[in-house]
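re: that chain from earlier
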Amino acid sequence: MQLEEIMVVHVSVKGNEVTAFQGEAGGVVMIPFDATIDGKYFNGTVLPGGIDTQVIGPKGTSHTLSARYMAKGKDYTGEECFVYIENNGVICNDVEGGYMRTTPTFVTNSKALDFLNKQLFVGKGEPDGMGVKITLYRVL
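^ sequence. v structure.
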């Protein structure tokens, strides 16, 4: 299996608008964010309303996440378009170094980016200054 890097999402967490609770079964955190996206096929900005919801296990070491956001920008032909991204995955802190892996799905109105609507993708997240860098790959 080969991977092709298609875009990088540079996430910046907004102020202190985080909504969270903790209970016996674990907790939930909802994090609004801003982001820019750059890559070989699409460059743009995430529109207001992007949210990352994380369900945290009772020991705090494992998380599931679901981030949903809409970006506006230009495809590789220079045409303006929208790209909706739903990025689900896991954050694991109970192994050395930890990791974040995702399986993004896309919906776009760009004819040039129609492959986003149809193919399989994976992602890798890592800390990046005051936010997170999420690199998204097409599975070939």
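Residues 3-139 form a domain with the Porin fold (CATH 2.40.160.20).
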